[in-house]
Amino acid sequence: MVPCVAGLLLMVRLLMAAQMPLVPDEAYYWLWSRHLQGGYLDHPFMVAVWIWLGTALWGDTPFGIRFCGLVGFILANIWLFLAARRFFPLHEGIGLRAILLLNVTLMASVGLVPATPDSPLFVFLCLALWALSGALYAREGYAACGWWCLCGISLGLAVDSKYTALLWGVGLVGFVLFGGRGLWRTVGPWLGGICATVVVIPTLVWNDHHGWAGLLKQGGRASQWHPSRAGQFLGELVAGQLALLTPWVAALCAVGLWRARHEKRVLLWLSVPAIVLFLVNVTGERIQPNWVWVLYPILILAGAAYGQRIKGAVIVGGLCTALVYTQCLTGCLPLSSHLNVIARLGAGWDGMAQDLVREARTVGTPFLVADDYALASILAFQKPAGLTLIGRDSRWGYINGLPQKTAGTALYLKDEHYGPARPGVGSLWRQDRGHPLRLYSLEVRHNLSGWVVQ
Question: Quick check: is 337 in a domain?
Fold first, then answer.
């Protein structure tokens, strides 16, 4: 029964990847894949490599962009299954429980369909968890060294995907040094650390050549200080994770992680640095839901091992996932554009690109300028005929090969969200099946400079 359910979920996931429209952040990473390098301002390079491989096989299509993430998610399920069985050999069916819990969370079933850095991050963290289980099981000898090396390599690849993977490294170092097992006296952890360092060299070199811009951008978030809003930000964080994990699964994971403090303290060691960082961050800014991805392999594993009444959690989570899938594929519920997140992000871009081409011809300019990097990226993916897209966000300056350009006369595009239109300024609605989603202003401006993104 379980393999049948897993197979069905995989087929639906493939359908979603092919049918769900591309969202702006995916288009941004797609542009990265056109200019491969050792890093970028927002994240390391791994997602760009994955997109480059996928589009080499399937072309510049949403499915091609998401292909490596889909394959990686299958591997992540396998590695999580194997890690669960090795960490908890006395828990019957633990591997299947972990896979079921993972696949009924909205974050995995929907959030990992788009091609973002979270996809390779999650895949390599699951591989690291499996390798760590092998290293702790083998304890010493050549086998243990091999497992530690694999753990280091996979953690390094996770860091090459997203900087938050460094938090696992901090937790693992703490476990090796102070976990009470004397692991620091063995060769394996040190070899693993060397392997991890070697693997992240491209990311380190890129940062070194760019004034450590990537690490400073991500690390600088913790320096903000707005304690008066900490309660609001913490509430949003908890509410967001309850929604994305689904409430029942979230409760199982929280209880499981607490119970793991005795039998599997390594899971707590791996999770504590991230938890502490998020609690510090809520004193300065809101935590985006996908940042918590770094904890998901640990949470799912703990929830599957120690959670009770898992059947109910799977049923409730499965129903939530089915509802979201149905809405994504059919748009059957009459949601507002503010609540219909997938339509708001991904629908209507092709029609809008055609409208912009007509507007540019009316004005008599081949240039379209946007300050918003996401807006410029998704329009570049549409490849509007006869238009040259110029992005003005400083992010573009960190991508090699993007020429700079000053447009004498250009259409300047700005996101006005849901309106109203500004007096005396042209406007354009992006629509989904005739329903307005988002309002954009259009102005004719002169001597705007930026980077050519298409």
Answer: no
Half-sphere exposure of 412 (CA within 13 A, CB side): 15
Looking at the fold, whether 364 and 268 belong to one and the same domain comes out as no
Of 245, 4, 12, give the one whose Cα is nearest residue 113.
12
Range of the domain at 429: 345-452
If asked whether residues 292 and 406 sit together in one domain, one would say no
Pairing mode, strands 426-432 and 435-452: antiparallel
Indicate if 307 and 361 belong to the same structural domain. Answer: no
Domain count, the chain: 2
Helix, coil or strand: residue 370: strand
Per-residue pLDDT of the chain (454 residues; tens, 9 = 90+): 556 666 676 777 778 888 888 999 999 999 999 999 999 999 999 999 999 999 999 999 999 999 999 999 999 999 999 999 999 988 778 888 999 899 888 888 888 889 999 999 999 999 999 999 999 988 678 888 999 999 999 999 999 999 999 999 999 999 999 987 888 999 999 999 999 999 999 999 999 999 999 998 887 665 566 677 778 888 888 888 888 888 888 889 988 888 887 778 899 999 999 999 888 888 877 788 888 889 999 999 999 988 777 888 888 888 888 888 887 777 777 777 677 777 888 888 999 999 999 999 998 999 999 999 999 999 999 998 889 999 999 999 999 989 999 998 999 999 988 778 787 678 899 988 788 888 999 999 999 999 999 7
Q: Tell me which H or E stretch contains 444.
A: strand 435-452
156 lies in the same domain as 94: yes
Q: Is residue 339 assigned to a domain?
A: no
DSSP of 32-73 = HHTS--S--SSS-SHHHHHHHHHHHHH-SSHHHHHHHHHHHH
Closest CA to 400 of 88, 33, 64: 33
